[in-house]
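Worked example 3. Consider a protein that binds zinc ion.
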Amino acid sequence: MFRLAFVAMGLVMLTGCSTKDNGAATTSEPAAIAPILDRADARDQHSYARPLEARVYHVALDLDVDFAAERVAGSATLDIEAAEDAREIVLDSRNLTIRSITAPDGSALDYSVGEGSEELGQPITVELAGHERIVIDYVSAPDSDALQFLSPAQTAGKVHPYLFSQGQSILNRSWIPTQDSPGIRQTWEARIRVPNPLTAVMSAPSAGDPVPDGPDHRIFSFAMDKSVPPYLIAIAVGDIVFRPLGLRTGVWTEPAMLDAAAAELADTERMITASEQLFGPYRWGRYDMIVLPPSFPFGGMENPTLTFLTPTFIAGDKSLTALIAHELAHSWSGNLATNATWADFWLNEGMTVYAEQRIVEAVYGEEAYDQAVSLSLDATDGALAELERRDQVLAVDLAGRHPDDGFTDIPYDKGAAFLRTLEAEVGRERFDAFLRRWFDDHAFEPVTSSMFFEAVAEQLFDGDEAKIASFGLREWIYEPGLPENVARGNPEAFAEVDAAVVEFDGGGDPAALGWADWNTAERLRFLGKIDTDLSDERLAALDRAFGLSATGNNEILFLWLKLAIANRYDPAVDRLTRFLTSQGRRKFVRPLFVALAADEEWGLTIARRIYPRARPLYHPVTFQDLDQMGLDAARTGSESTQS
Ligand SMILES: [Zn+2]
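Given these inputs, the predicted complex is written out as structure tokens:
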């Protein structure tokens, strides 16, 4: 997933669905219960599943998408591998209505739905009675955490409704009753019934052309024959069209956005080639992308074979396409070798940021790489200054907390700094060989911090305790702060911009600075480094010189609006209002509302005016904690579990 908090990226260059006789479940061999899940740090406290007793290894969905009721209904057929003495299997769910659970022959199985918790949802315990396949007939709740139903007004085309899902971290249990734990990999298939003329796409290859089902519906089929962590099962349904961008890549989006999306993504095939040179073959077949409506809460989500993207990365000049390098890199780090639990999220994201920077270097050159590294270190320093010590640790302790509490810049940027420091220690050639072996050794497997520690100790430090200690391997993974040996990168990466910052802070005229010649990374560096205490006159001069209010680059606009709020700059409020009511990317929306709400005399009134209008556009991931801030009289004090 791309960036929850701020980290800049910088380049000049982001049915009547029958349930019992559908025959949807094909056979797929059970993967052996992975011995990895036996490790102490592979025990997932965010799932009720007990995979060492019984685990799901294949899911077959047969679902009807009901836009009027804003829910999905149908069946999930689960193939199960159980230990010899196992009598039951425990699944995860959240607010699902279970209509029946049966064996394939239709006989009812005993089951119970536990009370569970607000945080984790409800466990479903099913008596197996010797069966290795069970069929769950169910309906999702209208406010499912994972599914966002959009009205036509919330789309670009304004004519048809839209649905998309977001599974990470523990949201998919709100529409799929399975073992929702990243360490429990499952192959899957789906039949999805949608109203005409909408198209369904999923994070799996299509399994044939859509089939008409009555006069008004079609059924789309998909099959993922590689085992994935269940948070990577994803769906989008809407009035969408496809355009190929290369031999194995293309883009889906609404017709009105197709030209802009395709132009912005023109470098994708080059990025795939660069990635393969670094990390080995791309193992997922096609790499397609879908550019979603503006309410998508994240920058991107690395759903296999179909990356989900925010439209806010479209700047018109490919200047924010490091986002694509990031999501593509997840095809190795995250999707191939996956954190066994959310406490090891850094193994997904730190490795991906490191890989993203290497792809950027290969495609856009050394200067772009130096600048990306420098911005990532800034983010690390910023996070360390802000976060409690326990949250500064890569292998973070999430006991009693929601996984999203660990989704800070630490796993992303301190994680990348760790890998870059390892690279500096052993040399790039050796480190690259290590990474390739890591992905080969753990392809389609869960991984943990202790596994990474052991691999580094053995393969890069030859098991030499003195070398391991002098590098600080344990400190890097298990302790707060930033070890002193961190590879700082090129200090000259932003030499010109940093000189301009000094000039501006000393009262210099912004029109005399080199803004027009700077790339996006340089512009972000400048806006992130200048003194934030500015008069209205200085802000007006900045806006005049750089055209900040009119920029089409949302990362730059975001920094400008933060500056404006910090200085109660009234002329920017209209632009701020438009930004907050036209997209729902949490990275942008949340900090701006937090900054407004913190200013009780000026900002809070503005926030209370904007929020009730903006909220209908937002995904639950974006609005849940904003609801707690008293911005909407109608919602004050409502319950929330998301951080
Ligand atoms: Zn990511």
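Take a moment to read the result before moving on. Residues 153 and 159 are 7 Å apart (CA to CA). The chain has a mean pLDDT of 92.
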